[in-house]
Amino acid sequence: MGRMISQLVLPFHLLLMLGVSLASLNDHRYNIGYEVPLFVNKVGPLNNPSETYQYYDLPFCQPGELLLEKESLGEVLNGDRLTNTLYQLKFGVEKDGVVLCHKKLDQNDVSKFRAAIIKDYYYQMYFDDLPFWGFVGKIEDELWTLNGKGPKYFLFEHVQFDVLYNGNQVIEIHALSDPSNVVDITEDIDLNVTFTYNVRWNETSIPFKNRMARYSRASAKPVNHQVHWFSIINSIVISVLLMTFFVVSMMQRLKNDLRKWSSGDEEEDKEVGWKYLHGDVFRCPPNMPLLCAVIGAGTQLLTLFCCLFILAFLGVLYPYNRGTLLTSLVIIYTLTSAVAGYSSASFYSQFIETGWERSVTFSAVLFLGPFLLMQFFLNSVAVSFGATLAIPFGTILVIILVYTLIAIPLLALGGIIGYQRRSEFQAPSATKKCAREIPSSAWYRKTPGQMFLAGLLPFSAIVVELHQLYSTLWGYKISTLPGILFFMFIILILLTVTLSIGLTYIQLTVEDHEWWWRSIFRGGSTAVFMFAYSIYFYCKSNMSGVLQTTIFFVYNTCICYAFFLTLGTISLRASLMFTRHIYHAVKSE
């Protein structure tokens, strides 16, 4: 018995090891003269926020032995590679002109630094878990030589650390480069460079609990922030008015249809086209295992989004909390595998008693399969460039173990529970043996036309916030807040539900009973507009290069695909509830 319990506990212990160990307040208290942990992290071009390399890929001053800090799964996936450094910052101790090292740069080293300065490279460090940034060098374009050799390139050889503290805790840190202490690296010649640094300590009244707030405040100017809020309120008002008008019109139309149906007048009865579909509208949809897999994967992703919002509201997720978001994604997605199995198997078993295992299997690979293939391609590109985004083999092995030992058993458990608690599909009317022939309809009533309408309206409501979200994901500033994202997510769901119901009703009025798959495509069409906007966003940005382009489109494709499955599932559920309701009302009449 004890051995069985230990075998059950082991996978969950492995999952807990992936999380970030959150330091308590006592871990961030220092006495005067105590050394505060400082790590160098990575470097990269300013315009390509996802293209990062290890700090010592550039020939900076290195300690005798490079020691990598132990990192969580999320930190590794985020491309963080924290390493020790020669810089020593002791709490409350100021320093002036401390020599970090004397370094001789050969022509290759000079070429590396110059190439980094041309691409506007920055470096990132962590001081007491606070991220801060600085630049490698500068270009002075105005210093053109007479022989036309071009601009001058200068390497910063001095940095000043300005630290703010409150009591015995660190609150804020900045790295300032001295433009007067530079070395000219325009030509490929050997150079002797002396790297130095200063440390300044200043007291502040900002409490320790608010020290991460400055990263959120660095979002936008106040005017832009007001415009942002105005756009959001405008989208909400327009969406509410649209949904109200749509619901009132639909309710009035349905009441008229039911009145004509119950009147017994043959002329009026012919106007209610959808009544003739009572024997076909609840027919078992084609490709049932795949449809149930969409429901399972979509429900799992919807649960994932909701859990992330909860963690954000609880303060677990906040800007620059190293790797916490990616760690949370892995853990929540793993644990919600049971949701995918249950949703897929329970829906499948309502129509067919055997074969639910296929739907559960499909739900496991429907999102994760394409995602892993794209990640494998991205990882291959990152490895070829030597970027920090490349996932080490050990991390890949850990992910495989987590999915094998935890996700798959939970998926199977959810499927078994869903099958055992199955209930027969209760259709308001009996289904005919032979399917009714579907009359031809205008082009705008077909799937592409309805997808365009169903995707354009929700996208128009969220486009402003979508731009802010992309600016946050592919930039350095926090341009949006969890509360705003949550409200827009609710608006997106409500618009998807409203349009799905309305377009399903329009489809039924022309006596087209094949609404199952079309409702999924209608709901998920917003994701197509999101992906199209990501292309526009990329073209308007300053991002460039093979690596950054690959990262951008791989991740945006995965994000949009996740939204397609989520919104498609919501649309299908809404259409099913609507059709059940109206045909139940017809039966009652």
Short descriptors:
transmembrane, 54% helix, signal, alpha+beta, single chain, disordered N terminus, 16 helices, 589 residues
Architecture overview:
There is one protein chain. With 589 residues, the chain is α+β, with helices and mostly antiparallel strands. The protein contains 16 helices and eleven strands. Strands 2-1-4-5 form a four-stranded antiparallel β-sheet. A four-stranded mixed β-sheet has the order 3-11-8-9. It is elongated. The N terminus is likely disordered.
Poorly predicted segments:
1-10, 19-26, 268-272
Radius of gyration: 29 Å
Strand content: 5-15%
Q: Write down the overall geometry.
A: elongated
Q: What is the chain-wise order of helices and strands?
A: HEEHEHEEEEEEEEHHHHHHHHHHHHH
Alpha-beta classification? alpha+beta
Give the overall pLDDT as a whole number: 84
Termini Cα gap: 60 Å
Number of helices: 16
- Specify the helix fraction band: 40-55%
Oligomer: single chain
Number of strand elements: 11
Strand order of the largest sheet: 2-1-4-5
Sheet with the most strands, sense and barrel status? 4 strands, antiparallel
Transmembrane segments: 229-251, 290-318, 324-348, 360-378, 390-413, 451-470, 482-508, 520-538, 550-572
Membrane topology: Multi-pass membrane protein
Subcellular location: Endosome membrane; Golgi apparatus membrane
Protein name: Transmembrane 9 superfamily member
